[in-house]
Amino acid sequence: MTKYNTVAEAYGFWKNSSVAVMEARAKAIEKDIAEDPNADVAGYAIEAEALEQAIAEKRGAQPATSANAPAEVANTAKGEKDGEGAASKVYRSAFFKHLQGNKLTQAEQAAFDNVNAEARANAFNKLSDTAAVIPTHTLNEIIVKARDMGGIMSISRGFHMPANISIPVATPGAAASWHVEGAAVETEKVSPVPVTFGAYEIMRILSISAAVRTMSIGAFESYLADELTASVMACLGNAMVDGTGSGQGTGIVSGITWTDGTNKVTVAANKSLAYADIVNAIALLHRGYSQNARFVMNNTTLYTDVYGLVDENKRPIFVADPVEKGKGRILGFPVVIDDYMEDHDILFGDFRYNGWNMPEGIALDVSRDSSFTKGLIDYRALAIADCKPIVADAFVYVTKATA
């Protein structure tokens, strides 16, 4: 591969080539950056910018500028056409090159500036003037990974709505009835339950070796997605269990008023969980929520309190899944493991009526100053999010008394 020291040098080499040849080279560069962890990203950035200028000149267009890069030129330089804004592949490439400290092409710089100028005019303006919005593809990957981790988040309803907006959520309606021919049928008024998610900030600092600059974009994206899943999304997952609702999301345990005999079963401090307690919890669940109900508990509770329970015929009430470890059913209802649940605590209900909201995704800032002497780069992850139970009647709480 020919190495170019300046854009002018690369431009001089490619300016007499055909558009097809230059587009093919642009595709090859993108492929190598995405797949080869040892790719010379800085050198490729110089060549890609030169190719962009040469292609624009061949087509009679002005080279793209950071102020108004035409979408066609941006996509041509990449050899492809894709989505808009944070969903575009041009922005995705620009985002990760920005975090790595590598040079952006003019088209990438334009895409980067446009997306983040809009974001800073909205929700993230009070968080940072330089935060970059994470690409849509990466955010989707983070959410998928978070759901794959299991827990309450994996079975709750996710929203991506503006904060402080009331959202109507339908509850189970009355069943249809037999109709006598010719008789009038009364109209049923459906009353959705409104839910309003607040705007709370989640922040995490990630310190990564400066060697990240030499990683391929694909490898860096995968690494960053893992780190953000294990930090930002885990923070939200924890709040979904017992968040206080003050400066953070509201958890099911702390966000619902629990009353013994109504929506709560309390096991005496000197006793162990019994088969009757599980049956009572199922019986307390309001009508309309049992069809999709699940038991949620941590691993310790499952294997210490539940695993050995038997019914009146001495049959185990927990039936393990023969394929997936840690999964199974209690009296026919699926079991979900959530490590943020307290020992001896069990939630039972329809978790479609518990929700979380992340209206603007995740924004990242990068700093190369704070860890200068250690050769590290600091990344600050910022997210606006909230969570809360939507319908209290959809849940029952089983807990053990402390005294």
UniProtKB/TrEMBL annotation:
Domain (Phage capsid-like C-terminal) ranges: 132-399
Chain positions covered by the region annotation Disordered: 59-83
Subcellular location: Virion
One Pfam family linked to the record: Phage_capsid
Domain of life: Bacteria
UniProt xrefs under InterPro entries: Phage_capsid, Phage_capsid-like_C
Chief localization: virion
Name used for this protein in its record: Phage major capsid protein, HK97 family
